[in-house]
Amino acid sequence: MNGLSKGIRKVEVALRWDPSPAGEPPADLDVVAGTYTADDPYGDPSYVVHFDSRSPDGTIYLNRDSRDGKGFGYDEVMTLELERLDARYARVVVGVVIQQPSGERTFAGVANPGLRIREGYTELAEDAFAGVPGATAATVAEFVRDETGAWEFRGGVHGFEGDPATFSRTMGAARRP
User: Which of 46, 122, 153, 158 falls between 20 and 30 A from 115, CA-CA?
Assistant: First the structure.
């Protein structure tokens, strides 16, 4: 990053998926974001933002929440105003969770899932979860402050197999290479 760059400032994470076929329970995907402090960047999240919640300071919030994928375009959208996030936070991890109310469902069992991450009109990432078909959740982005305080984006979809509550507690743990 050069001296003129301000880094990533405000990001939109959007999910889309098609409704389940007739007779099947609806698929419900949720965007979640966990914040991590500079003194414990890979430990427990300071707080987690998900459906029915927002960050205490209002910098991370869900704009749109879908429980069934019905609608046009992106069904679930979260905004992260990183430039407003307190300086004690050094890392934000974003994930996608498939709710499991009627038995285990993986990304392979969700019709046409898709992810888009962008800052303004600049697309940072796009994915269809094809690399994690057996996962019930996945981390999809990591935002990290550099030594100047600017935020940088680290992409990549990393699958998780387990329940949503465990995922939200462990999604920020350091990954093994």
Answer: 46
Q: What is the pLDDT of residue 41?
A: 94
H or E, element range at 68 = none
Whether residue 172 is predicted with pLDDT greater than 50 in this model: the reply is yes
Burial class for 26, CB neighbours closer than 10 Å (0-12, 13-18, 19+):
middle
Distance CA 90, CA 33 (A): 13
Q: What is the spatial distance between Cα 176 and Cα 70, in angstroms, rounded to a whole number?
A: 37
How confident is the model over 126-135, as a mean pLDDT? Answer: 97
Mean pLDDT on 37-53 = 91
Q: Is the per-residue pLDDT at 70 higher than 80?
A: no
Q: Can you tell me the distance from the alpha carbon of 35 to that of 52, in angstroms, rounded to the nearest whole number?
A: 17
Across the strands, what pairs with 130?
A: none
Q: Which residues contact 142 (CB under 8 A, 6 or more apart)?
A: 91, 92, 93, 94, 153, 154, 155, 156
How many CB atoms are closer than 10 A to CB 34? 24
> Whats the size of the chain, residue-wise?
177
CA dihedral 40→46→51→52, nearest 10 degrees, is 180
